[in-house]
Amino acid sequence: MFEQVKLNFASDALEPVIDTATVETHYGKHHAAYTKAFNDLAEKAGLSGKSAEEILGSLDSVQDDALRTGLRNQGGGYLNHNIYFEQLKPVSEAKKAPEGALLAQIEKQFGSVDGLKEELNALAASQFGSGWGWLGKKADGTLVTYKTANQDNNYSLNMDVTPVLTLDVWEHAYYLKYRNLRADYLKALWDLIDWSVAEARYNA
Q: Which residue among 24, 66, 102, 142 is the one 20 to 30 A from 39 at the CA level?
């Protein structure tokens, strides 16, 4: 059974960057709904024993169009939000900068952590409609920034990358506090990114 990632903070702990109502709605309503729907669809498709990554990476094997679309949308919503919420910590607790191999690769490709943030923020801000901005790792250790629409991710798109971190640019992630100022939300969000989580993903 697929489960929501457990939050490492109380619903009000991300203030002032993300307000309490957004956490309660985003995690408690949206993510919970994606998780329930994905479980139901995976069971209906006879895929309950597989990981979310396996299901999303082999959608072509699902013959029923409606079921395949549902798995793609609900499974992506489940997995993307797990990745997103796992990397967040309160401002006072989040590791503010990467170290080691991840830092070295960022500096090699983007010049600096600030250079990476600028590129990824611009990419995420440019996503038309709902979607995600990503930092991913290729098999050879190089990094790549990319964006996906709706609840797509590298698995459903069969991309040769694994997620290192993600920026959620669905309106439900920021609209209660930031309204239409997506760029302001993206700039502030980095104060909550726990780079120790990104390091663990990169080093895995």
A: 24
Residue 147, phi-psi category: left (phi > 0), alpha (psi -120 to 50), beta (remainder): beta
- Place domain 20-86 in its CATH homologous superfamily: Fe,Mn superoxide dismutase (SOD) domain (1.10.287.990)
Domain with CATH 3.55.40.20 in the chain: 100-203
**Measured distance CA(116)–CA(198) in Å, rounded:** 13
Residues 37-44, mean pLDDT to the nearest whole number: 98
- Ramachandran bin of 119, using left for φ above 0, alpha for ψ from -120 to 50, beta for the remaining angles: alpha
Distance between CA 204 and CA 199 in Å, rounded? 8
The whole-angstrom separation of Cα 8 and Cα 128 is 31
User: Token pair for residue 3?
Assistant: 């489960």
Domain 100-203 has CATH 3.40.50.720: no
- Give tens-digit pLDDT for 178-192: 999 999 999 999 999
d(Cα 3, Cα 25) in Å, to the nearest integer?
Answer: 17
Q: CA torsion angle for 180, 34, 27, 19 (degrees, to 10)?
A: 10
Work out the average pLDDT over 158-180. 98
Q: Which of 168, 12, 10, 199 is nearest to 79 (CA)?
A: 168
Q: Label residue 42 by pLDDT band (50, 70, 90).
A: very high
pLDDT band, residue 168 (cuts 50/70/90): very high
